[in-house]
Fold this sequence. Notes:
heterodimer; A: alpha+beta; Jelly Rolls; ten-stranded mixed β-sheet; 28 helices; B: alpha/beta; Alkaline Phosphatase, subunit A; nine-stranded mixed β-sheet; 19 strands
Amino acid sequence: MPPKGWLGVIAIVLVYGHGFSRADSEISPSPTKKPPISAGSHWAFQPLKRPPVPDTGTPSATANPIDRFLAARLASQGLALGPEADRPTLIRRVSFLLTGLPPTPGQITAFVRDRDPGAWNRMVESYLASPHYGERWAKHWLDAAGYADSNGYFSADSDRPLAYRYRDYVIRSHNRDLPFDQFVRQQLAGDESCGWKPGQPVTPEIIESLEATHYLRNGQDGSGESDGNPDEVRTDRYYALESTMQIMGSSLLGLTVQCAKCHDHKFEPITQKDYYSFQSFLYPAFPIEKWSKPNDRVVYASLPGELETWERTEQRLQAEQKVLREDFHVWVAAHQPRGKVLFADRFDDPAALASHWSNTAPGDDAPGGTPPVTLNVEQGPAARIRDGALDIIEGGGSGDRWLSTVQSFDWRPARTGEWIQVTFDLVASRLTGKGTHAERIGYFIATHDFNNNSPVEGGNILVDGNPGGASSVQVDYPGTDAKGRGAIGISGYKAGRNYGVRVTRKDRDKLTLEHVVDGVAESGTIELKDADLPPGGFGFEYCCGRSFIVDNVLVEASRDDDPEWAAKVSEFRTALEERRKTFEQREKEIASQRSPKPGGIAWVTDASAEAPEVRMLKRGNHKTPGDPVEPTFPAFLRRTDGVTGTPGIPKTPVGTGRRTAWAAWVTDPGSPQAGLLARVTVNRVWQRYFGVGIVATPDNFGLSGARPSNPELLEWLAAEFVDSGWSLKSLHRTLLQSAAFRQSSAPHDPGLARDPADIMLWRFPLRRLDAEAIRDAMLASGERLGTKTGGPYVPTPRDGSGEVAVDESQPEAFSRSIFLQQRRTQVPTFMGNFDAPSMVFNCTRRADTTMPLQSLSLLNSTFVLRRGEDLAGRLHRECGEDILARVRRGYVITTGREPDPVETSAMLRFIETQRQAYAGRADAAQRVWSDFSQSLFALNSFLYLE
Amino acid sequence: MNPSPNPYSRRAFLGHSAGGLGALALAQLLGPARAFGSGPAIPGHLRPRAKAVISLFQHGGPSQMDLFDYKPALNRFHGKPYPGGNLEIHFDKQAGNVLGAPYAFHPHGQCGMELSELLPHTGSIADDITLVRSMNTGSVDHESALRILHTGRFLAGLPTMGAWILYGLGSENENLPAYVVLSDPGGLPVDGERNWSSGFLPAVYQGTPFRSGDSPVFHLQTPSQVPSQARINQLALLKELNLHQAARYAENTELAARIANFETAARMQSAVPEALDLSGESAVTKKMYGLDNPVTEEYGRRCLLARRLVERGVRFVQLFLSGQPWDTHDKNAERLKGLCARTDQPSAALVKDLKARGMLDSTVVLWTGEFGRLPVSQGKDGRDHNRHAFSLWAAGGGFKAGYVHGATDEFGYESVQDVVSVSDFHATLLHTLGLDHRALTFPHEGRASSLTDVEVTGAKIVPALLA
């Protein structure tokens, strides 16, 4: 049923792309059926043909070709391009557009004062030459390319620790304006074109070629975690390959190839055979039967001497760290007044493991979990003694398991003040050389029975050791009767420290559970009852892909036989505080000198030079393979100018050459597909300038996509882009020169009456900044913005409250947003509210939401409050006590312009009322100006580009 | 020229704000804030029966043959090889013989619905619910199946049905989020926040988790160091200055919405705690939900909150359990007993309470997991995943009362009669809300994406489920 009425038209427009375009605002109510497939004449599938620039008769006013294309159409409605915006507005537009950052007050003043005719170009060139240009425009490409720092697919959403090298490659390529066709070819087949083989010497150029291929692995890939039956594993692998194809189709050709996986595309001329022919170009790199998991698709290629230098440094730092930690532990061990040792294991003897530890809790009749933990094997779930420590090896799959002491302990000290505690050294929060950082280090006290409905109440108390802070506690875990009891302690779990919990008797039927770090109990305790603590063992939890290494498990109890014991403990604690400060300082120093092993590149390359057979899959199902397919190109994108239609597969020094052939095909000068690539690319750039592309569906240039609002303009821009040598910076210069870009955003009645949606661009469209620009601009305003230019991401953990945010105490906390962790399931809360995407495939267009959660975060989030404090500090530094100067400076920093009289007087009144509101408080002055600064960030004059 | 000038011009302004230049169609669908009170993205296509949904989601795959779908053959063949042919098995090395169903079934209500003895309270609402015994889905993997149930497809990161419903219907209370998630205080469900993601729909349609504690919504409370007068001054300032700026763009509804949102945000600070405050509920009500019993208290509290939220105009409320407790790979019988003890009474109380208050006609209560379980054992006493059959129940909002739909084979392995796919169910649910699943689309991946993706799934409304 076609939807009815006006709304129906909209739906049809979206599905079929008929009837509506910016240039042709007529809405056709007629088409209700699938349009005829006439790929032969579809505009987007033709080679580029540079159209003549319209003669508007007034060459002086509209000299720029873009303006002449637009003016012709505007004139037909009695409209014209608007007057030029003022200079502060213009430089703010250019600065945000090219660098994603606000202009500095100095830049604004210089540009406003520069009356030389070359002022515009000088200003534009300075931004194009800024390294921040690459950081901004790389992010746009990374959106289109589906970049993420995690694998997605399964809820583990495991880490992609080396993806950053591709991100940095994209930044560098943009900054040096690598011709876009080369940029595309390098991402598709850089490994084949450079011909490098593992072990050979490398050059910086080779390294870039290898890094570039990460483009092909931006899709979601759960194959590292697949644990189902062979069919499911195969499905998971195909999914990674298909995601890559979808990203290529969308980001390069503006086509939705995935619909042709199961059947010929319903709306596009893409046949199912085309789909699998396309797949056959990539299949050699993603062979389903000879699959490499994400962590195995890594190659080490480092520049001469790089590795040796790193190894030397690493050895030295490791040695220093070892000595430091040993000294600390030795000191603690020597000085800590010891309790009664009830149990101790230093894990020196693999043969003794089974006598101390078991997969079955004391008193239980069956092991914990399915499958249960096995001792002294490598295949998880397992526990193994290695190098004098205990490896907790998680095995994937679902459900909980545990490893418990064979020995049972009495967890209920008899008299008030007495305690029992268990501690262990956390040697590593992941297994050496593999796996991701365990998100939690889970362990149990009072393990007695894995049984969900056991007769014993309580017990099985799970402490979820959290790397980010307090550890949550659940009683009677696992099972549906588990009860959350809140959190204990404050310290996060880091390798090299000693952790545990202590149970102290407070009263009759009243015990406290404390978190113990390096022998000292922390603040943040919870209360337990005797029933919560039946006799039982101590154990480690297996869950959720968390593997880690521990040592020195020690269970001890307070002494009741030494009257001076309490005094000794207190003395020890004071001494320890001092020790610990020095220790932590040194730990930080060492950590800051460490770097990941150089040369690791997460790349893509063919599994062999011999291409495996690729078959069509009936209904897209790998259980029903069909006919074999060959690497051929789709018929609807075929040259008709006599030049050979199908390039052959070249012989490449490595690989099958298939991706090289596809890369050459898609950038083949004069071909329809290269024309399509150019159109799709300039359209995405246009969209960043004006909010909506000339084709409103940036990911669909097919028959079902929107028609271009100004087809000649798009064609001209694409031809210009190709003729400029595929230079994005040239394209920017052309766009920035246009009066269309430089016109005011002010409305006027004729425009609103005749073209209310500004389809024809009679004014510059007012637009909200995107999430990254908002965050970065807030940081820049308070002069907080970090200087990071590349390297591993800045983590964005989920804190105890569930909020995803950067820990501001870490050194790179204030880096630009492009350097924040882009984990699919963990978009920073603040940025998600402003439409930062959670990457599924890719993102060719950001949403633009307005909602109260944004207002709440602008008013109440710690991030914005702190940025207000930063800016207040800057204003004080720069303007002293001069109130008016601070108000004006604050406006210039955040909105790019001076406040007008209404704004000035409102702000001065506000300062006065805030002074009264904070009267009598020591920090009143600071609070007043923080409120002022924070308010600037909540102004639409800040959040929008006018 | 434009055939319908009025909506065109109105929408065009929205278009301007949504994308800058308002491709009309995109603007219509992208739209500005609607999740907090203004109108829906697309006016209802059809006459609605329901206006709100409460989803009691049961993570892990509840065992249909032990709870909802009586299969005497299981006990006859207990311990013997499965006689029914090939089974699709997830953990294929651990499959055993047929595993009997340990709990007795009894007929309930006038309709005589047969339910397990573990579900006496659900039995007491048998005459109010539709029980579908013939569901199936596309994956035996938890995450994928969760996504199919929540988003219609197995891919990660797509909009959930709550987001789609909100996108289609908008909100009725501008001071509360219209899509609220009440997750288990014990922890996030499997797949975490993806379970309430707005995916490619604008972020305004995402679910808002209400946490326990002082600040149920992120950044809800004014920071403690800011006295209330200072905040009042600040809100006044923002209003004045933003109105001043917006005066230059009088036609711009997005700027206006952003100004209004600061006031909404302030109202939320009191509206949210009020909705969560149970002190005004009677002792009888609390007892009905099991708040007097430690076993049912926690889940009962959230069921009661769900009713309060819907009462206040919230469109979609979803309850989750931490982890995936119904995933009974071992000790199936024992685990089911514990889970039913925890959830049966509160779930049924919710339906009874809504009915007593006259709200059941306009509120759908949905009780489902992501898939079912196998008739054979896994290990000695567990059941493995099964995508070929599972059961769910729905009450109110136009669903039939006292009705059992469809049937599985003799062993409960596969739905064979009147089979309902997840997408069929989605289509039916949207239909009761007055939404045409084929028309509720949003441009994504270069096409008109929808919850049911009818071109791929062939989803169709199941009229038999509806009164």
